[in-house]
Amino acid sequence: MRYRGSVLGIVWSYIKPAVQFLVFYLALGIFLGLEKGLQNYSVYLFSGIIVINFFSECFSNGARAFVVNGALIKKIYLPRQLFSLSTIWVGIIHFLPQILVLIVACFAVGWHPDLKQIAAAIAGIVLIMLFGLAAGMIFGVANVFFRDSENLVDMFLMMATWLSPVMYSWTMVAREVQIANIEKIYMTNPISVAVELFHYAFWQPTLSIEQQQMLAEQGNWYMFPHLLTVWVPIALVISLLLLMIANSLFRRFEGNFAQEL
To answer: What is the pLDDT of residues 65-124, one digit of tens each?
Structure first.
């Protein structure tokens, strides 16, 4: 549906993240000098961008799923959760070309992941799917009754991009924000955990041992402490709890969908 009548079709799945990457790389990597503090900053940046793009697809499409399919909801009965679930598959379709480009770029700069890092990438994908599905379903239900919800989605997506370590290192949060344990509060955001998982899986294996030691000496640790053992389980629990809340809201208000739409 998205590419109906489009000349380039699914090629837009490559063009849009490429333009997004170039803008951020020039503005932050070159003009603000973040490239000097992080080795292979281009890989660091793009691995975070595709996570945010994947979440954006799942969240924004999920928030519109029931309204967009209002005609079907009013005419026939079918499990309406399928509309939310379908947005995850659409997100995956647009995510695959981006991760393919990332993998090629990583190999070009000496990517050498181990099984733990590959598993971390898979965990990051699953985490975004769960969190995106939950957030999309909550706002999808709200959007049936309050159309202003779509504007809130755009605002939250902008916040998610800047409140996750996509374009900067997580160490800057603890260094620049003088609040006790701010970095731990920061990591209760499942998106931040997923971005760090992708950094661990794709960016960190492109660094040499010397580069990792240099970053450590500068205070720019390449992985958040206890990421795999503590923060991934916490993020999964938060995402699953949010999904349970989303499903509860859906079941409570589902009966009024046809009437409101």
So the answer is: 888 877 777 776 767 778 888 889 888 988 988 898 899 889 988 888 889 999 999 999
Model pTM score? 0.88
pLDDT higher than 70, residue 125:
yes
Q: 189: which 2 tokens?
A: 């955001």
Give the N- to C-terminal CA distance of the chain in Å, as an integer: 21
Q: Tokens 């989303």, residue?
A: 246
Q: Tokens 């170039």 identify what position?
A: 22
Domain boundaries, the chain: 9-260
Q: Find, among 161, 168, 163, the residue nearest to 186 by Cα.
A: 163
| Cα angle 28-200-212, degrees, rounded to a multiple of 5 | 75
Q: In angstroms, rounded to a whole number, what is the distance separating the alpha carbons of residues 230 and 250?
A: 30
Specify the DSSP class assigned to residue 166. Answer: T
User: How high is the pLDDT of residue 115?
Assistant: 93
> Tokens in use for 250?
């859906």
Q: Give the CA distances from residue 191 to residues 126, 162, 235, in Å, rounded to whole numbers and listed in that order.
A: 11, 11, 8
Using alpha carbons only, what angle is made at residue 36 by residues 31 and 41, rounded to the nearest 5 degrees? 90
| Contact yes or no for 173/221 (Cβ under 8 A) | no
Tell me what the mean pLDDT of segment 197-213 comes to.
85
| Count of CA atoms in the C-beta half-sphere (13 A) of 230 | 8
